[in-house]
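User: Watch each token:
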Amino acid sequence: MAMGGGELEQALESTFSFVTTLVLKSAILLNIPDIIAKAGPNASLTLDEIALELPTETPNLHYLSRILTYLSTKGFFVQTQTSDNPSDIRYGLTATTKMFFVMENNPSSLATLLLMHSHPVLMTSWHHLHECVLQDCNGFEKAHGKDLWAYGKDDPLVNNVVNDCMSTLTDLAIEQIVSCYDGFKEVKTLVDVGGGKGKALAHIVKAYPHIHGINFDLPHVVQTAPSIPGIENVGGSMFDSIPSADAIFVKNVFIDWDEEKCEQILGNCHKALPENGKLIVAENITMEGLVSDKSIDIVAHLAMIALASGGKERSEKEWKRLLQKSGFSVVKMVEPPGPLSKLKIIEAIKV
């Protein structure tokens, strides 16, 4: 069989596809997108100018040049040269990097998402994907002997990188949720189950100052949460019990767990609510019977195997069945505007 150029290129690109993630990570850790952004809206800097902002007096500019040249070919930086002198090469930011990889004062930044998923502890999980098929196991637990949340208890660095990422994803979603969903109006006490650092509650309480918020998460997680007026940080396990309130908010938690664990969480939500108490769930909802052909959607499904404990995205029918089985009646589903196209808010009442 003759060797095709296109096939060879695809094979080599696939072999080295990990490089883009890790090289981009190095640029973020060097703070290069922010260094260029601080120089002005359309700034471009030379290697020497960038080097002046690095936390060392002796950076290797040849290595830095290779990193930025590679990322320029991948669309993260714009490389320009006004003469034959290599020192005249300048680097600016593309729209993608400005929007998603500048960290400071940028609520849409995905830098923390990249830093979490490229962390060595989390990346190790993907090396066990074939064993997940053969042994029906979870990649993270196979790699580390415990799930991600238990691991974070013993490793503050992993705990921080995961919580920072969760806070970023909350920032992307919560404004759209608050703007389109008015079900918080009559709520007096609201528990955010798996609330992390309290970002979601901070937005909700700001919009509805009469609410007393309870940010509920694992003890080692809420220890990292800042003190926010109107919000009480409470540590515990949602698999044991949930603080009582007249409404419960759960965002992107059930996606991590299998049916049995979801029923356990929902059962504890049911116990914590008064009669006709309100459960507000924000989750990605899949279309019934349709399989997405978007690679990023398929990556998310694979991440559930590598990192989560039997979790998955569920359809409306699956959600209604799961909630009904747990003693809830679905009142309505609301789809927020914005880029998170699969995110929906499910309002259910305890019956």
In short: The mean pLDDT is 92. The radius of gyration is 23 Å. DSSP finds 17 helices and eleven strands in the chain. Residues 42 and 223 are 40 Å apart (CA to CA).
